[in-house]
Structures are given as C-alpha cells and as structure tokens.
Amino acid sequence: MLKMVFSTIMLLPMTWFSKNNMIWINLTTHGLIISLIPLLFFNQTNSNLINCSAHLSSDPLTTPLLMLTAWLLPLMIMASQYHLHNESPSRKKLYLSMMIFLQISLIMTFMATELILFYILFETTLIPTLIIITRWGIQAERLNAGTYFLFYTLTGSLPLLIMLLYIYNDLGSLNIMFLTLTAQKLTSTWSHNLLWLACMMAFMVKMPLYGLHLWLPKAHVEAPIAGSMVLAAVLLKLGGYGMMRLTPILDPLTEYMAYPFLMLSLWGMIMTSSICLRQTDLKSLIAYSSVSHMALVIVASLIQTPWSFTGAIILMIAHGLTSSMLFCLANSNYERTHSRIMMLSRGLQTLLPLMAFWWFMANLTNLALPPTINLMGELLVVTTSFSWSHITIMFTGLNMLITALYSLHMYITTQRGPLTHHITNIKPSFTRENMLMFMHLSPIILLSLNPSIIMGLTP
Amino acid sequence: MIRRVLPHGLGRGLLTRRPGTRRGGFSLDWDGKVSEIKKKIKSILPGTSCDLLPDTSHLPPEHSDVVIVGGGVLGLSVAYWLKKLESRRGGIRVLVVEQDYTYSQASTGLSVGGICQQFSLPENIQLSLFSASFLRNINEYLAVTSAPPLDLRFNPSGYLLLASEKDAAAMESNVKVQKQEGAKVCLMSPDQLRNKFPWINTEGVALASYGMENEGWFDPWCLLQGLRQKVESMGVFFCQGEVTRFVSSSQRMLTTDDEMVILKRIHEVHVKMDHSLEYQPVECAIVINAAGAWSAQIAALAGIGKGPPGTLQGTKLPVEPRKRYVYVWHCPQGPGLETPLVADTSGAYFRREGLGSNYLGGRSPTEEEEPDPANLEVDHDFFQEKVWPHLALRVPAFETLKVQTAWAGYYDYNTFDQNGVVGPHPLVVNMYFATGFSGHGLQQAPGVGRAVAEMILEGSFQTIDLSPFLFNRFYLGEKTQENNIM
C-alpha cells in the first residue's frame, strides 16, 4: 500500500522542485506509472481483503475504484495544460499540488479499513476540491457553487460522524472486516431509524440523490476542467462506495427505510434526464446526466442483492470514465469558441473529424450501447430492480430511452448540421486532446472485453 | 502589539495605517478600530451580502456568449431577435454595451422616424414591409407583462417622392419593383398631384410616387424604449461602457486557390467604464458591430482594414458619421393634416409634426457642403440658404414660415453605396455587422435584427435574403446602390 501512497505523496515535492518546462512531463509520467500499481490488486482468489497493512487494504470493491482514481490523475493533468499555460509557475504548481493532495486523500479513502479513517479522508477530499473550484473556476458564480458544494456535503456528513462514533462505542471496532461479524441486527425503533438515516445521508448527498442534487450542476459548471473531471468521475463514487461499505451494519432496516430514497431515485432519474433534454449549456447537460446515472447506482445499492452490487460497481466505473470523457470534450469545445452553449458550435464534424469520432464514442457509451460496460451495469441494475418490484421497469426503461434521446441530441447538435460562420477558424485538435480521449475510451473498451474484474465482491 | 493581538484577517485594514506620521502622540484611535472590527464581523455573519470578492456589480459579466457593441435600435433589435429565435429559453447570454445611456448622440433618438417602402432594391423594400408589419403588431412582439402597451404614434400619412423629367423613368421602374414586392405605391401625374394636394406647386415635377399604406412616421424613442424593456425582460444584460480593445487570435490558412489568408477570432472584449480606467474583459464567442456612426472605430479595433489597400485584409469598413440637420418650423397656412412626407426633386424634404401647424424637414447637403461631424451643432444658415428656397418653391405657403428649433444627428453613412452592411466579416470570423444604413436604419431595424439573428443561429439568412449587403462587396467592388436616396 505504501508504494501507492508514498509515491503519490512524493509527487508533491516533485511538482515544486521540477524545472518549469518539465512539470507536466514529470507529473504525467509518474502519474501513469503510479496508475499501474492498482493492477496488482486485481488478482484476488477470494473476496477477502488483501491485507497490506492494518490500516489500508484493498478488496474487489475497492480495487476498481482505486484503479479509476489512479488512472484519472494523469488525465486531469493532461486536460489542465491549456487553461493553465498563461499562469505564473507558482500558481500552476499550486493547482497541481491541490490535485495531488486530492489524489492522496482519495486513494487513502478507498483503501481505508477503518471507517473513522475513511470518514476523515472523505471530509479531507472536500478541501482541495473547494479550492480548485473557487480559485480556478471561470465565472463569478464559482463562489456560490463552492459554498453549495461544501455545505451540502458537510451537512450531510456530520450526522455520519456522530453515528460512527456511536457504533464504535457500541461494537468496539469499526474495521470493515469485523463489522459484518460483530454487527447486531437493528430493530425498528426511532433511534435505530435515525441511525440508519444519519449513516446514509452523507452518501445520499454525495451521490447525489435527486432532492439533494442542487450542488452538482453548480459545482460542475463552475469548476475548471480538472475539477469537473474529478468531481464527476471519482467524488460521486465516494458516495456509492460508502453506501456499500455501511450496508452490512444497517441490515434489516434497509428493507423498508430505503423506500423513500428508492422512490426519489427512480423519479429523479426521469426528471434529471428530462432536464437534460432542455439544457442549452453543454456542461450543465453532462452534469445532469451524471445525476441521472448515479440515481441508478443509488437504486442498486439500496436493493442490496449480489447482482445489484455488481451492477452498481460496474456502472460507477463506466460512468466515471464516460462522464470524464464528456467533460473533456466539452472543455475542448469551450477552449476554442469561449462559449459553453451547444447552439453556437454546430457542425463540428466537418472541421474536426477525429474529435467527432471521440464525441460519437462518448455519446454512445453514455447512452449505454451494448457491449460496453455501461450497458452491463445498467442491465444488471435494471434486472435487479425489476425483480425487487415489477413497476420499476417503467422508470428505468423510460430513463434509458430519455438518456438515448439527450445523448443523441447532444451529438447531433454539436457535430452534425451546417457549420456556422463564426467557427470556421478554430485550432485543430491537439495530439494531447486526442490522447486524452483515447485514454478515456480504451479502458471502457478493454473492460467491455473482460468486465469480471470490475464486478466487485461477487464475480 | 496591536498587530499580534488581532487575528490576521480582521486586522487587515488596521495594519495598513501608518501611525508613524503622528510621531509624538499616543493616537491609536480606538473608536475607529473598534467600529472597523464590528463592520468586519457584521459582514461575515449571515444575513448580509458577502463582500469577499471586490464589488463588481457595475461591471459587465465576465463571460457572455454574444456581445453587441451599440445599444441603439439596431443593436437592441439584434438582441431581441436572438432571444426570440433561440430554441430554448435562457440559451444564449447576450450583453449589450452602450457608451451613452442618455442616447444623446445616437442616431436613433435624433431620427425623423419615417418609414417607407419606396426603394429600388427589393431587399430594402422587403425589410421595410416587414418593419411595417412589426410596428403594426408591436404590442404583440414587444409585450411585457408589467408595462403598459406601447403607443408608437404612427402617422400613416405616406411618403410622396417627386421626380423631375430626368428621374421620371427611374421612378417608374422603381415603382414597378415596389409593386412586385407588395408595397402599395401609386404613380401620380402633376395634375393628380395638384388635385390631391392643392398646396403643392408642381413646377419641375414630371412624376410623383405616393405610398398609400404602411408608410409614414412614428416615434423612434417609443420603439427604442419598447425594445429596451422587452429585451431586458428576456434576460439580456446591459452595460454602459466603451469598447476599447478586442483580444483576438489569428491563424494563417490557405484557401482552395492556395492563397494565404489570416483568419482572426475575437476572444475577449475589453469594456471600459465611464470616467474611470476600470475595464472588464468579457469573454465572448460572437461580437456584433451595431455601433452606428462609430462602427468604423470598432471595426478598426478588430483589425479590419489593416493591410495593403486593395486586398481583403486592407478593406476598411466604409462607414463614417455624417451630420444632418433637422429644422422645425411653424407655418399656420401650411399644408393640412393629410400631408405626407414630401421629398422634393432638389433633395429637400418636410413632414408635418404634431397637430399645431408645425413641420419639420431638412435637406441632404452635397458632397462639398458636408458639415464637420465632430459635434452636433446646428448651422442655421444652411436652412436659410439651402433648404428654405426649395421648400418655398415647392410649397408657396412656406414663404412665411418661422423656424422654432433645430437639431442635428448622425447618419452612419456608408460611403461605398449608402446601403447597410449586414452579416459576418470574411476574415474576422466572429464579428457580425449590422450598421451603415445611411439614414434608413431605423425603419429597417426589425428586419435586419432578424436577419443577423438568423445568420448567427442558423448559419444563413432564412426569411429575407440580405446577401447583397454582405461585407464582401466592398472588396469585390460590387455596389448595391439605391437609385434615389434621402
């Protein structure tokens, strides 16, 4: 474990001591090398945790998310090169240090064996994200966005801290392995209901659940590209991961306490997908589509069957890569035309055909085209929710339809159609951007060939 | 000591004081410091507005998809149609930058306010016809829920154009084109003229064309205010300031004939506030030049015209301000209420103003007599020598008129062919023009606004094809000229 954590911590001095023209090369290369390390954790013979140490470990639930996080750091660094190139070297280094600090906390969050350590690092991830959004965001609304982001997440997670301390007092240990063994069945008293709510709310806000999702469009739109990427790809998955870790101790209560959240998620799926159909701002559209996809993950985590957990994990990985890719594409558009409106940059296929290909693949994976892992995840979730209750098929089926609608709408508006006059002079795609899109897409395609490694605890 | 005691953030304002200037005394000014601390704490507590960032409410937003330079009737019309034709509400952020909120020198407010369809170019006729229908239904187009309906004070009295022998043939062919486009115009012989308008002296008049419907004059301020209200209610941002700089990037590209062209793209517009050095860089995707008489300066800022003359790069925007005088006089024995706007063979024109026997009019000076456009001062001698004789000849009752007042306004005069420039610039790819209408901008504003909005949103002109008005014609030398202008 130390090989990951220490190397990532050492990226910090490397940022500050590198020569100014070598920062990007150094960081990207070392980030890519570090991302090879989680590959070592994939080969597990049983579903026990690989105990690397008493505090950090990695099991089949953690490893895919860890891989995603580690893979994303070099991608974030590559994506930020353009909008930072005019800044002074120390501000560049500060931005990169924020990203690396975030990376350290995320890696340790996913690998934590003890729930209090998990909680502390969960909260720690908020700080660098807030700094990235408020200091390097684009418009004046970024302060508002940062405030919403911070306070929604903090308010949700404070009850979690209290509950974790109470459970620690009760059970004596919050180690994940021991929780399943020592947890007692909860009864349906008021206090146990409140315990369930307190534990779950933090992750509901983070996912986000439909009624508590207000911070997400603001934060995603106002954040710079690296901020959007890490928010969409990893930070939302913290919620899903946390829910899956806590459900063993909240056992029989979940069956009926989950009802309102299931209803909200099912309804929210359709609502946010429909909002996507009406969006004009490209980043806002992708942000709302994130809410819609994560609603499926909430449904899966709350139903708690083996297949649904598998579906949740696959969907989290797939959505992380797809959403991050869409944000990179939207950003490449924004850097050229200085406008996020879809209507003002149309017919790009004639100008940038290779980028049109990446747009095409990103939108296809977004609408869960077979045989990508997006479809695997969605299919598993839809199937399990159908078996939980037949009526949910209406919602999930309608959601898949509307997702297809807005993904294709996004593609056709930006790529097809006649070119408008004011875009004829944009810079052609950089190799860096093409590489970025390829590095997002190739894991999706390779995983579609062998999704069993990301299928989680029950392959 | 004080510095160590106070927490860092709160003591900020106090640390910059220099007590060293009062060397002798123990003047720590406790009250002032305490009140500053109190103010600081109050601003952090909830319930008050947070001043963490410096206050920028007077500045335009940092980002806007479309920036319209110029808030006159053309600029507001483009903003209105952009918002109306966008397919999703709240889609495009539009910012209108106007350097003078009082519109003291803008052509719109100082305009005579006439609308007529008697042009020779079919595009001009179509634009005026659309404007007439827009003005007729203005309360449907520009309805705002909290405001009373607009009263344009439209006087549908028509235009009467008089032609001498040598211009008669041109007038006849013009009227034919106008009738083809659907304008209601009729030709009148001198006898018919004398019959209909007994006050007229038809000496030297061979033919006259009289507009019977959709022609007349209206109140341009009302249209401006109506557009302004509606556009604000649709969510367009307004800002008073001057555009001082465009930040752009250029790229060398080869055309299909292997010629090298340099294409430019504007990224940012620097808007400077009035009476201060403060400016705000507004990041934008499209800039619309609707600056009227000052359009050439805005075009020069974008680098249009910087190049060897005779090339596309060296073709400047040929719009310059020309001063025109309008005089108001009182003549109790003058023509009656049915008087149209009469445009004489000599170029002098007049129309009725109000119901108290007041008339206003003027005349376009010849090239040699062009007044200096540096200011808007009125030359009364011009009326005495150049306008009155022709008026008195045409309408004998005007021999005994008394001038009440006069003003001057600018034409955004297109020195090339006196017709508007609409559409994108071929080299500065995201600058669109809507200017240079040389005196008939007000009456064509609704149509032109819609054309520019269509060009931006759809990529080509959809309803009225204004391709003869594109910028390219200045380089290619193809004049789109009117046969008779005012």
TrEMBL record, chain A:
rRNA processing recorded as keyword: no
TM helices/strands, residue ranges: 21-41, 61-82, 94-112, 118-137, 149-168, 194-216, 223-244, 256-277, 284-303, 309-330, 351-369, 389-414, 435-457
Domain NADH:quinone oxidoreductase/Mrp antiporter transmembrane: 112-399
Membrane topology designation: Multi-pass membrane protein
All residue ranges annotated as the NADH:ubiquinone oxidoreductase chain 4 N-terminal domain in the record: 1-109
A GO term from the CC aspect: mitochondrial inner membrane
GO BP term, example: electron transport coupled proton transport
Source organism, top-level taxon: Eukaryota
Catalytic reaction annotation: a ubiquinone + NADH + 5 H(+)(in) = a ubiquinol + NAD(+) + 4 H(+)(out)
Listed EC numbers: 7.1.1.2
Location in the cell: Mitochondrion inner membrane; Mitochondrion membrane
Single GO term (MF): NADH dehydrogenase (ubiquinone) activity
Keyword match Mitochondrion: yes
Swiss-Prot/TrEMBL keywords: Electron transport, Membrane, Mitochondrion, Mitochondrion inner membrane, NAD, Respiratory chain, Translocase, Transmembrane, Transmembrane helix, Transport, Ubiquinone
Subunit field text: Core subunit of respiratory chain NADH dehydrogenase (Complex I) which is composed of 45 different subunits.
Recorded family membership: Belongs to the complex I subunit 4 family.
PANTHER family xref list: NADH-UBIQUINONE OXIDOREDUCTASE CHAIN 4 (PTHR43507:SF20)
Functional note: Core subunit of the mitochondrial membrane respiratory chain NADH dehydrogenase (Complex I) which catalyzes electron transfer from NADH through the respiratory chain, using ubiquinone as an electron acceptor. Essential for the catalytic activity and assembly of complex I.
Protein name: NADH-ubiquinone oxidoreductase chain 4
Organism encoding this protein: Colobus angolensis palliatus
Gene name for this UniProt entry: ND4
Automatic annotation (TrEMBL), chain B:
Keywords: Electron transport, FAD, Flavoprotein, Membrane, Mitochondrion, Mitochondrion inner membrane, Oxidoreductase, Respiratory chain, Transmembrane, Transmembrane helix, Transport
Cellular component, GO, one term: mitochondrial inner membrane
Parts of the chain that traverse the membrane: none
Functional description taken from the UniProt entry: Required for the assembly of the mitochondrial membrane respiratory chain NADH dehydrogenase (Complex I). Involved in mid-late stages of complex I assembly.
Localization (cell): Mitochondrion inner membrane
Membrane topology value: Single-pass membrane protein
Pfam families tied to this protein: DAO (PF01266)
Cofactor(s) the protein requires to work: FAD
GO biological process terms on file: mitochondrial respiratory chain complex I assembly
InterPro entries associated with the record: FAD-dep_OxRdtase (IPR006076), FAD/NAD-bd_sf (IPR036188)
Protein name, UniProt field: FAD-dependent oxidoreductase domain-containing protein 1
GO molecular function terms attached to this record: oxidoreductase activity
Organism this protein belongs to: Colobus angolensis palliatus
Stored SUPFAM superfamilies: FAD/NAD(P)-binding domain
FAD dependent oxidoreductase domain boundaries: 65-455
Subunit description: Associates with components of the mitochondrial respiratory chain complex I.
